[in-house]
Automatic annotation (TrEMBL):
<dbReference type="InterPro" id="IPR004107">
    <property type="entry name" value="Integrase_SAM-like_N"/>
</dbReference>
<dbReference type="GO" id="GO:0006310">
    <property type="term" value="P:DNA recombination"/>
</dbReference>
<dbReference type="InterPro" id="IPR050090">
    <property type="entry name" value="Tyrosine_recombinase_XerCD"/>
</dbReference>
<feature type="domain" description="Tyr recombinase">
    <location>
        <begin position="98"/>
        <end position="272"/>
    </location>
</feature>
<dbReference type="InterPro" id="IPR002104">
    <property type="entry name" value="Integrase_catalytic"/>
</dbReference>
<protein>
    <submittedName>
        <fullName>Tyrosine-type recombinase/integrase</fullName>
    </submittedName>
</protein>
<dbReference type="InterPro" id="IPR013762">
    <property type="entry name" value="Integrase-like_cat_sf"/>
</dbReference>
<keyword id="KW-0233">DNA recombination</keyword>
<dbReference type="InterPro" id="IPR011010">
    <property type="entry name" value="DNA_brk_join_enz"/>
</dbReference>
<keyword id="KW-0229">DNA integration</keyword>
<dbReference type="InterPro" id="IPR010998">
    <property type="entry name" value="Integrase_recombinase_N"/>
</dbReference>
<dbReference type="GO" id="GO:0003677">
    <property type="term" value="F:DNA binding"/>
</dbReference>
<feature type="domain" description="Core-binding (CB)">
    <location>
        <begin position="1"/>
        <end position="81"/>
    </location>
</feature>
<dbReference type="GO" id="GO:0015074">
    <property type="term" value="P:DNA integration"/>
</dbReference>
<dbReference type="Pfam" id="PF00589">
    <property type="entry name" value="Phage_integrase"/>
</dbReference>
<dbReference type="Pfam" id="PF13495">
    <property type="entry name" value="Phage_int_SAM_4"/>
</dbReference>
<dbReference type="InterPro" id="IPR044068">
    <property type="entry name" value="CB"/>
</dbReference>
Amino acid sequence: MTPLRQRMIVAMQMHGFSPCTHESYLSAVRDLAKYTKRSPDTLTQVDLQRYFKHLVVERHLAPASVHLSYHGIRFLYREVLAWPEVNLEIALPKRPQRIPALLTRAEVAAILNACSDDRHRAMLSVCYGCGLRVSEVLALRVSDIDSERKLLRIEQGKGAKDRLVPISPTLLETLRAYWRLYRPPEWLFTGRDGAPLCSATLQRAYTLAKRRAGVTKVGGIHGLRHAYATHQLAAGLQVERLQRLMGHRSIHTTLRYVHWLPSAREGEGELDLIAKLEVAHG
């Protein structure tokens, strides 16, 4: 490991970045060094501009990929190499603002019912019933469930912030049944080796259940989190509260769901989304 790479890892640890961010940022810097055939600390603004032109014009990378590379490289120069300023003067491609294919209650119910594995069904139910990210579901411990107050503790979610999310009575019963069946000692969802499952396992389980359910809308497991947000807004949950439940840093991220759901109304919402699925599926 080069000293520069080690310094960058330490800087990311100090900022509390997630393992996924570590990997993405290091990959961005590694690709830069591979293209220029020079150490990043010897490059100039002109070299960086040439590299990003290569990503956009020659490699035809998607806007999201270019932006991710930009943020990783910008972090290196600002936080590790302490450049006085990083003004790359790069016209980054705009990210297309597409409305995702939102799942209906009936489609969510069909997907959960098509999941034959009890453990995977419980995990997908938590994804939808609490609006969690996949990484947050995989990081859950048994001790994170507060049965008495009907709360789920999300420890160090995205942005390194803890939050509490209500667990509906229906979902709580699902988790109790799961615990009686598997008796996990520490991590709530584990593989045979007792370690937390990897995200690819849950992604595959979702894709298979979706196919069995005959749901053809485009999108991965994150669609369950989108469904949670839109169904809560449709039931009248206030945007500010949804922001807290979703763990969004900016209210603007939450407001996207309002734009996607013009029929949303202000109110208390419906936190027991799992119970509503039975009605929708029936």
